[in-house]
Design a protein that fits this description.
The chain is α+β, with helices and mostly antiparallel strands and 304 residues long. The chain is built from nine helices and 13 strands. Helix content is 21%, strand content 21%. The strands form three sheets. A nine-stranded mixed β-sheet has the order 1-13-11-7-8-9-10-4-12.
């Protein structure tokens, strides 16, 4: 599909209006496509462990202010004297994890379109000062364990990273999957690698996220995510901007009930997949148990 055949605003609106998953698992469902992670799905994912190799998909907590990180994480230390030369040390952490720096999970409470959250709930009623009453991260306190699949866009393009002025389209993700010999299955976590680290290394004066114009995933990816019943999208560059549409890929949260894992560190995973000779693995994501949270910082682990 050529760039000239980009979806119209009307087509994208139909992705939102006509293809939503509201009511698919009941009107009171707060887990979305994660309902497809059955015990059988988890057991099948565990059988992907062959070498025991583990890869973290998390960045270090961003404590240094800079482009894309206007509110750095706070880390304070304290020491306690126990007498006789003994003691102990402790920490305080404070962070605003939504944004372009911290690796975090977006719950189904994080984002809405046209004043409607996942399953049609009203954010004016469900989002309070004390937390979210609907779609909060607490519904994933037992962890997300499923089959993970990496789609390596730079490798497919033969380039080090997704460059400025280019975006990742849904039909390209189909092509990448075919080129890698990967068949997506319902309830998979799909990691889309765009080469954020390589981009930053090549553009030290304009690192990714420091400007309004950002390469990343185009809204044309919505049907790819919906048709494949991905339960979780893991990405390093997130939404491209400016998009030219009213909607973004973040619309998968309220529309399809798909979770997002933002600011993932995917270069080590891409390297591991190439070395292992396969692009599927067991994925473990354990969000903090926060009642009413719109998400959580996480340290996702891919296991081969």
């Amino acid at each position: 599909m050529a760039e000239a055949n980009l979806p119209s605003n009307e087509e994208v609106e139909s992705y939102i209006r006509d293809r939503n998953n509201w009511g698919r698992w009941g009107d009171d469902d707060q887990r979305g496509v994660a309902n497809l992670i059955t015990p059988e799905k988890v057991a099948a994912a565990s059988r992907l462990i062959r070498t025991g190799r583990r890869v973290s998909l998390s960045r270090f907590l961003p404590k240094t202010p800079g482009p894309g990180n206007p509110v750095p994480a706070q880390h304070w230390m304290y020491k306690l004297d126990r007498g006789n030369g003994g003691g102990s040390a402790g920490d305080f952490y404070g962070l605003r994890y939504h944004g372009l720096s911290t690796t975090h999970l977006d719950s189904l409470a994080h984002y809405w379109n046209e004043n409607r959250m996942w399953n049609g709930r009203d954010p004016s009623q469900e989002i309070t000062f004390d937390g979210a009453n609907w779609g909060s991260v607490e519904h994933f306190g037992d962890g997300i364990v499923t089959r993970g699949v990496l789609l390596d866009v730079p490798k497919y393009r033969g380039e080090p990273y997704v460059a400025d002025g280019t975006v990742v389209h849904g039909w390209e993700l189909d092509e990448v999957a075919r080129a890698q010999g990967v068949t997506l299955e319902p309830g998979d976590a799909v990691a889309v690698y765009s080469g954020r680290e390589a981009y930053n290394e090549a553009n030290p004066q304009a690192i990714w996220g420091s400007r309004p114009e950002k390469s990343g995933l185009h809204v044309s990816c919505l049907p790819f995510i919906r048709d494949n019943d991905a339960c979780l999208v893991i990405w390093d560059m997130m939404d491209a901007s400016p998009m030219g549409y009213e909607w973004t890929v973040h619309s998968v949260i309220p529309t399809y009930g798909v979770l997002l894992l933002d600011n993932a560190l995917l270069q080590p995973l891409a390297e591991a997949c190439a070395e292992e000779g396969r692009y599927e693995f067991m994925l473990v994501v354990a969000p903090l148990k926060m009642k009413g949270g719109t998400g959580s910082p996480v340290n996702p682990i891919a296991i081969f």
